[in-house]
Design goal:
The chain has 337 residues and is an alpha/beta fold. The protein has ten helices and 16 strands. It has helices at 21-30, 40-45, 56-63, 89-95, 104-108, 162-171, 202-214, 231-242, 314-327, 329-332; strands spanning 12-18, 49-54, 68-73, 76-79, 83-85, 123-128, 141-144, 187-192, 199-201, 219-222, 224-225, 246-250, 268-274, 290-295, 299-302, 308-312. Helix 6 packs parallel to helix 9 (314-327) and helix 7 runs parallel beside helix 8.
């Protein structure tokens, strides 16, 4: 005889948005063993959002509750850089180049050669892979959304270089040695949500947005995206928008594809990338949500360990828009390409 074995359903991580605090407590009590141990879960609870490990049947039962606003799988977001090349500082010195002369993008956006005096010190939140210590890129705060993303050494806060490059494009100091940031007076807050593979979960991104609201940041740079819509993400975006924040996000780097989220939301400025002739890069995602184009081909920016990296895509284009918005340059310039 064949003995029957008990079938156990596998679990999936879900992001659950509820109507109010009472509903949160009820769901927590009913699903105590399903609560994710991720650090960002504690912060999200205040926003009536829970991260739960559920079987399909448990998720279906929860979805049928009237006080559940949304229940969604904890999807993955990807950083929006197409290509990255990082020459060593030694190679750069041997080439004898002033990297500021290689920044064709600054001329393309008509940034004045001389820095404007007394620019506003606007708070800019960079949701990304972190910002490793660099004397040229002052950071007001380094926040890791979860223990998994924590770094024991500020020199290695950014494992991929993605976030450091974004922050450098926004606020690198002009020291006649490396690149020039667009708005060196910006007060950058690094909120680490992307891992070493430039990936983040939905719950991490949502927690990062609420952290930017708590910090009273005025501009939020999101150089990442996903093709999947999310009600919980959209609610976080609406909350940031209602708090008076300007949200700027990468449209994506997939030829023929639609604009990614969160850039596709109406509350977010969706950014595409151009080459050095002013034409939209062919691999830039497209759609009616696309609002502005900025340089995104062979762009020098701050690299790790005192270097300079060359990057492409809507990630770096987004950083330029965030920086220019923080300095007021976008409103002064009528002919952005």
């Amino acid at each position: 005889t064949v003995q029957a074995t008990e079938y156990e359903e596998s679990t999936t991580e879900y992001v659950v948005q509820l109507e109010d605090a009472q509903s949160v407590e009820e769901v927590l009590e009913e699903n105590a063993e399903a609560v994710s141990e991720k650090e960002e879960s504690d912060d999200l609870k205040e926003e009536q959002v829970l991260v739960l490990n559920l079987t399909p049947s448990e998720a279906e039962a929860l979805e049928n509750r009237e006080d559940v606003v949304s229940i969604e799988e904890n999807i993955i977001f990807q950083g929006s850089s197409a290509e990255v090349e990082e020459p060593t500082a030694k190679k750069k010195a041997a080439a004898g180049k002033d990297m500021r002369e290689e920044q064709w993008n600054l001329k393309a956006i008509h940034l004045p050669q001389e820095r404007e005096e007394n620019q506003d010190e606007i708070k800019v939140a960079v949701l990304d892979s972190g910002v490793s210590f660099d004397k040229d890129v002052p950071v007001e705060g380094n926040i890791a959304i979860s223990d998994v993303l924590e770094s024991e050494n500020v020199m290695f806060d950014d494992a991929s270089g993605h976030g450091t490059g974004i922050a450098g494009m926004i606020a690198a100091q002009d020291n006649e040695d490396r690149i020039r940031g667009i708005h060196p007076e910006a007060k950058v807050y690094s909120i680490r949500v992307l891992n070493e593979n430039n990936q983040a979960t939905l719950s991490q991104v949502i927690a990062g947005i609420y952290k930017a609201i708590d910090l009273d940041c005025k501009i939020l740079n999101m150089s990442f995206g996903t093709m999947t819509d999310s009600e919980a993400l959209h609610q976080a975006v609406r909350s940031a928008y209602d708090a008076g924040m300007l949200l700027v996000a990468a449209g994506g780097n997939t030829e023929g594809a639609s604009i990614e989220y969160p850039a596709a939301y109406p509350e977010v400025m969706a950014v595409g990338a151009t080459d050095n002739t002013g034409n939209k890069i062919q691999t830039t995602s497209d759609g009616e949500e696309l609002e502005i184009l900025a340089p995104g081909s062979q762009i020098p920016t701050t690299g790790l360990f005192g270097g300079v990296m060359i990057t492409e895509g809507t990630s770096i284009a987004t950083a330029q828009v965030s920086a220019a918005e923080s300095s007021g340059h976008v409103s002064k310039c009528s002919n952005w390409i």
